[in-house]
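Notebook p. 47: complex prediction with zinc ion.
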Amino acid sequence: MSSNAPWLPSAGAATETAGGGGNGEPSHESQVIVDPNDPRLTSEPLDVAVDKDAYAQPVPLPDRVWRAKLKLEGIKRDNGERVDFEAAQTNKTPILPYYHTGISASIIDPTGAFDGITVYPAFGGRVSTLLRRDKSSTVATVLSKLTRADGKPYVTLGMRLSQQDWIHLLLQALAGEPECGVETQWEWTCAVCTKELTDLRNAGKSDKYPVSIRGMNRFPAQQDKQKRAAGILYDPEMQCQVNKAHAFSRAFPKIVRFLSLAELK
Ligand SMILES: [Zn+2]
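Predicted complex, structure tokens below:
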């Protein structure tokens, strides 16, 4: 299980390889005494790329289909406890119970540029056993894209399981961190609107969700010449359209579709 929280969508082990903004700064809690005259400090010239900005935000993953490794994130409760999954219920009639959990995908990119970046499913990073109007469920859809170690599918047409059996089957499948395909798309919402509307919804005063924009080609053209030259054609920063005082928020890549390895070819 990764320590990356679902609400930190771009946090990944390899953000440093994705164009700067590295998170590999040493911990200040370290107790190790380092010799200030270590020859690695005093004698070896550093190969610093002085034209790069160490404070630049990493470039979001471009919209496309990737091979990825699926992982269970589970759910972090308010008291800090982490559980593999939990029961919840719909907030509108008909009130229906279901199980849900958080999952993530770690991108496999042989070029190295985006390798190891963690992405989360759209709509909150959760998958659930709740039946949608077309009788699909996000848990069953993810499972249908995975195969067991012996090559057999987890899901067969017409199979009937309780919600508990579905969530247990998902946990069983994710235990091996299986590979599959994921299609990612930039998703933007105003951070301030999101916070305000979440507070109102939690207080039962509104059922509104913030305006969201999906797809990198709906973002402003990248003005930075260096970034354009590197193939980064869009700028993930966009201003709030509802209230200019909310200023700019940033798009994050989200999983909008799961694919089997066979569909990836
Ligand atoms: Zn806003």
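Notes: Helices lie at 39-42, 138-144, 163-174, 191-202, 225-229, 261-264. Confidence is low (pLDDT under 50) at residues 1-23.
Next step: compare against the earlier run before touching the bench.
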